[in-house]
Description:
By secondary structure, this protein is mainly α. It has helices spanning 3-25, 28-44.
Amino acid sequence: MNAAAARTSLKVDDYLDLFNLAVKVGDLKWQKEIKARLRFITYKNC
């Protein structure tokens, strides 16, 4: 795995952890923001 892929992987993992926290606290706005950011990261790396 190259360095860029490793950084992207860490970002996704971090955002998924944040998303899980947003779900636990019931913050729908935060969930939407995190989903949007994950879509952006995924699109950027395709």
